[in-house]
Amino acid sequence: MTIAKDRIGALIFLALSIGYGLSIPLIPVYPGDEYEIFTAKTLPTALAIIGSILSLALLYAARGAKKSALPELDWAIAIKLIALMVSYGVILEPLGFLIATTIFLLCGYWLLGERRKWLLFSCSLPLVLCFWYGLTQLLDIYLAPGLVMQWIGGL
Amino acid sequence: MWEGIYIGVTTAVMPFNLLMMFVGCFAGTFIGMLPGLGPVSAVALMIPVTYGLDPSSGIILMAGVYYGAVFGASTSSILINAPGCASTVVTAFDGYPMAQQGKAGKALALAAYSSFTGGTIGAIFLVLFAPMLAKVSLSFQSSDYFALMVLGLTAVAAFAGKGNILKALMMCILGLMLSTVGTDRSNGVERFTYGSIEFIDGLSFLLLAMATFALAEVIMSVMDKSTNAQQKKTNDASSLGSMKLTKSEIKEVAPTVLRSSVLGFIVGVLPGAGATIASFLAYGVERNISSKEDKEKFGKGSLKGLAAPESANNAASTGSFVPMLTLGIPGSGTTAVMLGALIAYGIQPGPRLFIDHPDVFWSVIVSMYLGNIVLLILNLPLIPYIAKLLEIPRSILIPLILFFSLTGVYLVSFNAFDIQVMVIICICAIGLKLLDFPLAPMLLGFILGGMLEDNLRRALLINDDSMSFMWERPLTAIIMSLAMLALFGQPLLNFIRGKLSQRKTQDVFDAE
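ok -> structure tokens follow
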């Protein structure tokens, strides 16, 4: 697959700069600020203008650039790992640190092709338990047990 | 100065700080050896660990990790021809051929001795010049600081490489844009929060650093099929051969190491230049001044070709601490991360650092030297064993690194929302990397954004809302001129060269 990297980058950055600039009116100002030379809007305004100018400059500089090939990448594994991280963020508070992290590590090893059961389990729960013990007992950091643990405790 | 060194030594040799130095060097060597993870990622991964420590111990740990990672990156360059970071790319030019000739042990030893000498010379210069520069910079005003930050940002962009200046500048602007998210420090109004309470405090530096330099780098290395193949090569690197250097070999490389160390330090001090340029420059200089016979050996396992970049990149790493400690302007991506960590501790790097926090200032300088000694006496003999750690399957290592990155951020805020923001930033960072946008200038812009705005606001207030300080105050004018020179110097030179060659062609044509 070949793409014009600079042109795409310039267009994305131009859209970002315009979007950023369009959001500037949302910044509230105090009465009397209109007489000040430097307000909360000054730097963002300058950045939006400079950003747009730089994007246009890159777009101009890239007018004759040849399309370049993207390196051969394993997109599937990246998408799987990103989905795993998002899921970890979702389950961390309901399931609690111990369960959520064990699941995260197990799934991570599995996704990357590890199938040896002894390695899968020895590198997940014992490791998480050690980490949890170090944080909560040695460093005295409070980790919420999670809704599931609370529910089990309440039974 | 001696009093300062005494404070530094007493702080650095405290048992806990010594332990931090050992741990830092060891962890840094290990992380640096992993292809795809360089010193910036290694230092970023350590930030959450250092939050529970006092500033001196934290920064000593990070300095150790920095040195260790540069050393580790050299090791993987020599053993498996897979540079862990850009500054050790040149190391592989002659280091890997030496390993192929069965002299891996000798190459590693030479890299370690050269790094040690580079680091030592760099540390001596740092002791001499950092306090001097800090004293001079005490007379700086807000306008000078504003100009210095502009210089820092433009210099980083100017050194970004041919054709990448615009992209690096755009990334600086993106970093500055991100720094405006949250509550404005001066008048307390919310900017770009879009009503979300999660963004009222702005984006966390740690979150941004971890997402761009730890998560994105790891995901990229997993995606890259060639990196996956490199692990198989580590198994072949288990036999290293002798680590001894002969007297004649030491005599041959000694002048090279000295020259490259001085050159490396000077390049490292320049904001934005960093260890990569230093190593390439030292290699080029050494190759050019060598005899014809020696010149032919370059690229085929030359001792000088290995010693030059190794001493230069270590001296430059030390040199990059000078602008960070004295002016509060980071000289490289790694020092930008460390600067952010210092700010997170509530310590403002800059000329007042060595007055307000002499223990931090001097312990960093002293720990750099001690860190070099640790690398030499501890890491070098341990290299065969550390190399064995690389045999841990990537299927185990990668999820663990992801876990430490995510948990590192979560344990600071205890907000699972931060994990989602991290993932989004990681996806953006991967996209930017694929489009060849450098990420270090973005982090630099993010770190300097708040300070740049505050100093500009103050400078305008002092000067009755006039921008005339830019040309009326001599120091500000000089720094701004340097910034413009850094930015437009190279394009202007190229333009003049083009015009001259055009005229020459025209003259030849007219003569005919």
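The mean pLDDT of chain A is 87.
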